[in-house]
Specification:
It is built from 14 helices and nine strands. The chain is α+β, with helices and mostly antiparallel strands and 383 residues long. The strands form three sheets. A four-stranded antiparallel sheet has the order 1-2-3-4. The protein has a three-stranded antiparallel sheet with strand order 5-6-9, with no helix packed on it. A two-stranded antiparallel sheet has the order 7-8. Helix 7 packs antiparallel against helix 9. The N terminus is likely disordered.
Length: 383
C-alpha cells in the first residue's frame, strides 16, 4: 500500500521490480496540473534521504511546463530567440554547428531538467577522446581543447537562459572541468622587422597604405576592412570605427557590428597616417577606404589582407605571424613608447584597461623593471 509522503508533494511506493519510488512536485502547468519528478532507490531509507535532498534542491523553485522539453529542442529555441539577436552571423553559424554535431548526438534527447553536471562532464570527456568528425593528421579523432572550451561557453549561456526561463533549477555546466586555454604565443615584430616589412611594401600601390594604417592604429582585421571615407574627419584627424567586415563560412562576407560595444570608438590618427590617407582620398572612387581590389564598390574581404601579409612576410624573410600579431605589434610598441594602458585600451577597443594590462603582461613587466632601474639610478645619484 502506498504511503503518503510527509510533505504531501507526492507518493512513496515500492515498485514491482523491488525498487522504491518517490515523487515530488517541482512546478505546475498553465492549467494548474502539478509537474512531478520521480526519485528511485533500492531501499525505503535510501529513498527518503534522496527525497529530502530533492526537496531542498527544489525548495522555492517553480519550474515551467516546458521543463520537460528535450535539451536539443531548447538549444534550437535559445539559438533562434536569444543568440540570434546577440551575436554575429558567423558566431551564430558556429553555434549551430556545435549544437548539431557535438551536443545533440550525445545529450539532445534528454529532458532538459534532468541534465546533470555529470552528464555534461561525460560529454566533454567523450568529445576530448573521440569527438572530431573527420580524422586529423596528428590528433586523430580527438577534439581540440579550444573547441571544447567554445562548446562549454555556448552551452553555459544557453543553460543560464534556461534557469531564467524556469526550465532548470541550476546551471548544470557549473562545476564542470574544461581544458585550460592554450593561446598561441604572441609574436611581435621588432622595429627593425617592421622597417623591413614596410620596405617590402614601398612600391606596392595596393597594400602599402593598408598595412601602414594597420601598424599605426592596431585595428582588428574586420575593422580596417570596414572603414569608409565618411568615418574620417580630415580636419581633426579623428577616425570613427563603427562597423566590421565579417567572414562567413561558405558564404559572401557581410558588414556588421564591431566585436564589442567598446569596439565602437573614435581614435586620433598619427599625423603621417592622416597625410597618407589624404593623398589616397584624391584618387579614390569608392566609399571604402580600402575597397575590394577587384570590386571597388564592395569592402575588402578579411581573408584578402591575411594572404597578402603572408606573401609579403615570406618575401621579406620575416616570421610567418598571424594578422592579429600586427595588432599586438602596434600595442607593444605603443606601451614601450610611453602610452598608458587606459589610453591604449580606448584605441584598441578593449572593454577596460585591466584587460589590456593582462594581455600585455610581458610588456608591463619589462616596463616595471625599467622603471625600477631608472628610480634606482636617480636615487643612487642623490644619496
Amino acid at each position: 500500500m502506498a504511503n503518503k509522503r510527509p510533505d504531501g508533494d507526492g507518493l512513496v511506493r515500492k515498485r514491482r521490480d523491488g525498487r522504491w519510488e518517490g515523487r515530488i512536485v517541482v512546478g505546475h502547468k498553465a492549467n494548474g496540473t502539478p509537474i512531478f519528478r520521480s526519485v528511485f532507490a533500492k531501499t525505503q531509507k535510501m529513498l527518503m534521504e534522496k527525497l529530502h535532498q530533492h526537496i531542498e534542491t527544489y525548495r522555492d523553485v517553480e519550474l515551467s511546463e516546458n521543463c520537460d522539453m528535450p535539451l536539443g529542442e531548447w538549444l534550437d529555441r535559445w539559438k533562434e530567440n536569444y543568440a540570434a539577436y546577440a551575436v554575429r552571423p558567423n558566431t551564430l553559424s558556429s553555434y549551430e554547428s556545435m549544437i548539431e554535431n557535438y551536443i545533440k548526438p550525445r545529450l539532445g534527447t534528454m529532458r532538459i531538467s534532468d541534465v546533470t553536471t555529470e552528464d555534461i562532464q561525460q560529454m566533454y570527456n567523450g568529445l576530448k577522446e573521440n569527438g572530431r568528425i573527420n580524422e586529423h593528421d596528428t590528433m586523430g579523432f580527438q577534439l581540440a581543447d579550444s573547441s571544447i572550451r567554445r562548446i562549454h561557453m555556448m552551452l553555459h549561456e544557453a543553460m543560464d537562459a534556461a534557469v531564467r526561463e524556469h526550465l532548470v533549477v541550476d546551471n548544470p555546466t557549473n562545476g564542470t572541468r574544461i581544458p585550460k586555454p592554450n593561446y598561441p604565443p604572441k609574436q611581435i615584430l621588432t622595429e627593425e622587422q617592421v622597417e623591413r616589412f614596410m620596405t617590402e611594401l614601398e612600391n606596392d600601390a595596393v597594400w602599402h597604405d593598408f598595412f601602414y594604417t594597420e601598424l599605426t592604429t592596431g585595428l582588428r582585421r574586420g575593422e580596417i576592412c570596414g572603414l569608409q571615407w565618411q568615418d574620417l574627419d580630415f580636419s581633426t584627424g579623428k577616425l570613427r570605427i563603427r562597423r566590421a567586415v565579417i567572414a562567413m563560412k561558405h558564404q559572401p562576407c557581410c558588414v556588421g557590428e564591431t566585436k564589442t560595444n567598446a569596439g565602437r570608438r573614435t581614435i586620433t590618427l598619427p599625423p603621417h597616417t592622416l597625410e597618407l590617407l589624404k593623398k589616397r582620398k584624391k584618387t579614390s572612387y569608392s566609399q571604402w577606404i580600402f575597397p575590394n581590389p577587384v570590386r571597388p564598390e564592395a569592402p575588402m574581404a578579411p581573408s584578402t589582407p591575411y594572404h597578402q601579409m603572408k606573401r609579403l612576410l615570406k618575401q621579406a624573410g620575416l616570421p610567418s605571424i598571424r594578422f592579429h600579431d600586427l595588432r599586438h605589434t602596434f600595442a607593444t610598441h605603443a606601451l614601450t613608447s610611453g602610452v598608458d594602458a587606459k589610453t591604449l585600451a580606448g584605441i584598441l577597443g578593449h572593454t577596460n584597461a585591466s584587460f589590456t594590462l593582462d594581455t600585455y603582461t610581458h610588456v608591463t613587466k619589462d616596463m616595471r623593471e625599467q622603471a625600477a632601474n631608472v628610480v634606482g639610478d636617480f636615487l643612487g645619484q642623490i644619496m
